[in-house]
Design a protein that fits this description.
It is built from eight helices and six strands, in the order E-H-H-E-H-E-H-H-H-E-H-H-E-E. By secondary structure, the protein is of the alpha/beta class. It starts with a strand and ends with a strand.
Length: 196
């Protein structure tokens, strides 16, 4: 792949504070989340020359869009030019979307333990497994053309984008971190974490 990718997770949301699984649902960024988006925008501003052509891609979900808008402000780029792509959505937890881990355990006893033993293949009721999200994330990666691309996405989806790019083993991908205040540069087969 000749593209240079900068992978960003959305800033903290109210549901992140409450340890609620957002999946396909949404909650707004907190003040901390907005500050994190500004930090990531500043990291990108330092990494990207001001006149460099950059394509900005974003999940269609509110928390990612809100983060992308703040990043665009910091980069002095036109937010309306962002390429919104459904393949960058977060994994849905299905009927568990909106629940905390305790609520999930009460709703479906033992399911979280089963998921922990095989995240790649385990899908929550009406939800997505890592394999399912990996298919769409991989399709997005294969579709990216040359040039520099900023990608604003989510925790699981971002993990998989990075892991697939680095050709990691399936179980390793699930161990990757999910920061909300750092940027990952993927370039020439190398992954670099950029922080303030």
């Amino acid at each position: 792949m000749d593209a240079v990718l900068y992978i960003v997770r959305h800033g903290e949301t109210r549901w992140n504070q409450q340890d609620r699984m957002q999946g396909y649902l949404d909650s707004p960024l907190t003040d901390k989340g907005k500050s994190q988006a500004e930090i990531m925008g500043d990291i990108l501003k330092a990494a990207l020359p001001g006149d460099q052509a950059v394509a900005i891609h974003c999940s269609p979900q509110g928390r990612a869009l809100e983060t992308a808008e703040i990043i665009c402000e910091r980069l002095r780029r036109d937010f309306s030019a962002c390429k919104i792509d459904d393949r960058l959505r977060e994994a849905t937890w299905g009927v568990w979307d909106g629940m905390t881990l305790d609520e999930i355990e009460a709703h479906t006893p033992g399911a979280l333990a089963a998921r922990a033993t095989d995240r790649w293949n385990y899908a929550p009721p009406d939800g997505e497994s890592y394999a399912m999200v990996g298919e769409r994330a991989g399709a997005w990666l294969r579709s990216v053309g040359e040039g520099t691309h900023v990608v604003v996405s989510h925790g699981i989806t971002g993990r998989l984008l990075r892991g697939l790019y680095m050709e990691m083993a399936k179980d390793e991908m699930g161990l990757l971190d999910q920061p909300q205040d750092a940027v990952y540069r993927l370039d020439a087969g190398v992954m670099t974490r950029l922080e303030r």
